[in-house]
Automatic annotation (TrEMBL):
Protein name in the entry: FAD synthase
Pfam family, one: PAPS_reduct
Gene3D superfamilies noted in UniProt: HUPs
Keywords associated with the record: ATP-binding, FAD, Flavoprotein, FMN, Nucleotide-binding, Nucleotidyltransferase, Transferase
Biochemical pathway: Cofactor biosynthesis; FAD biosynthesis; FAD from FMN: step 1/1
Keyword Flavoprotein included in the entry's annotation: yes
Record's catalysed reaction(s): FMN + ATP + H(+) = FAD + diphosphate
Record InterPro entries: PAPS_reduct_dom, Rossmann-like_a/b/a_fold
Molecular function per GO: ATP binding; FMN adenylyltransferase activity
Organism in which the protein naturally occurs: Micrurus surinamensis (Surinam coral snake)
Gene Ontology terms describing biological process: FAD biosynthetic process
Length: 119
């Protein structure tokens, strides 16, 4: 898709370059991907995973992800998130609240974290 030259392919390629720039700037242990099961987050997760696999084909380190859980998530969404975590070998940190609060909690719990990719 990223190499197709189509308008969508160009956008995918630009997004992939942005993720790759993040991987050049920060080590994998200092990056986290926001993932709540939505379409945008799922697309970003897929691009991030592809970029990590391309950059570190031999590395077994898990990609970190942040799941900001809403008050009453749908059971189907929870199942999708867990299935996706297994498929992409994610290390998910679940935080309750809104995004701003969750990012503050994440930073307090992981002070060495330097970047969170949000979709």
């Amino acid at each position: 898709m990223a190499e197709s030259g189509s308008p969508l392919g160009q956008k995918v390629a630009a997004s992939l370059r942005t993720v790759e720039e993040g991987l050049e700037k920060y080590s994998l242990s200092k990056i986290c991907v926001g993932f709540n099961g939505g379409k945008d987050c799922t697309a970003l997760l897929h691009l991030s995973y592809a970029a990590v696999q391309r950059r570190y084909p031999e590395k077994l380190e898990q990609l970190q992800s942040l799941y900001v859980r809403t008050v009453l998530p749908f059971p189907e969404m929870e199942e999708f998130i867990q299935d996706t975590a297994r498929r992409y070998n994610l290390r998910i940190r679940v935080v309750h609240g809104n995004i701003k609060e969750a990012l503050g909690i994440l930073k307090a719990q992981q002070p060495d974290l330097e970047a969170v990719l949000m979709g």
